[in-house]
Design a protein that fits this description.
With about 210 residues, the protein is α/β, with parallel strands linked by helices. The chain has helices spanning about 5-25, 50-60, 75-80, 95-105, 130-140, 185-210; strands at about 25-30, 40-45, 65-70, 85-90, 110-115, 140-150, 165-170. The protein contains six helices and seven strands. The protein is globular. This is 1-acyl-sn-glycerol-3-phosphate acyltransferase.
Length: about 210
């Protein structure tokens, strides 16, 4: 990870802060749980288009998100790249994206991942193996993040967004290790890690819903 990309992610964070607090009313819980230094993976549920920018804006450290390449269109391409975000082709094993993501972690940065792959129910029901791979390969702890918007309320101008000025809760969970401590990276080890991760993320989401009343 270059200094330029880390600087870009910090600029992205500042833009996110202004944008998210200008359009919605974020309530951030547990941000202190994100380790202050060293590699970290933020695993974020994905039910709104604002989930990534929201976490970028409210996280205590600059975040480099893996974002589907379809989002990098027109002027958004140089902008997203400039603020340290990583383009990933979800139809293949994107070696460039994998290398860039591991570089972020090797340099002690924060990698943001939507482990469900695409926007959906946001309930961590179907996890992709990518999250387990990055966690086991890098040894970085995973911090679960629940973004709970007002998706079922009326008043939304755009279906994929919560109503403007509505409250959006961002709840950070306790960091945990995905691997079993053996350092194994076999298919079986990754499958076991994925199962472990899914349980932790689902538990965090349930706790976050209880905590926020969502």
């Amino acid at each position: 990870m270059t200094q330029a990309s880390e600087r870009g992610a910090d600029i992205g964070r500042r833009i996110g802060v202004g944008l998210m607090y200008g359009l919605w009313r974020p309530r951030v819980l547990g941000a202190w749980r994100v380790p202050a230094s060293g590699p970290v993976i933020l695993a974020v549920n994905h039910s709104h288009n604002i989930d990534g920018p929201m976490v970028m804006g409210v996280a205590p450290r600059p975040v480099h998100f893996l974002i589907k390449k379809e989002a990098f269109v027109g002027p958004l391409d140089p902008f997203l790249t400039g603020i340290g975000q990583l383009k990933v082709d979800r139809t293949t094993a994107d070696r460039t994206a994998i290398t860039q993501a591991l570089d972020v972690l090797t340099a002690g940065g924060v990698l943001g991942i939507f482990p469900e792959g695409t926007r959906g129910e946001g309930d961590f029901a179907s996890l992709r193996a990518g999250l387990a791979y990055f966690a086991v390969r890098s040894g970085a702890p995973i911090v679960p993040v629940a973004v709970l918007g007002s998706s079922d309320r009326p008043g939304r101008l755009i279906k994929a967004l919560p109503p403007l000025r509505s409250r959006v809760d961002v709840v950070f969970g306790d960091p945990f290790a995905a691997g079993d401590g053996s350092g194994r990276r076999t298919r079986k080890a990754l499958d076991e890690a994925t199962e472990r991760i899914q349980k932790q993320l689902t538990r965090h989401l349930e706790n976050a819903r209880r905590l926020t009343g969502r």
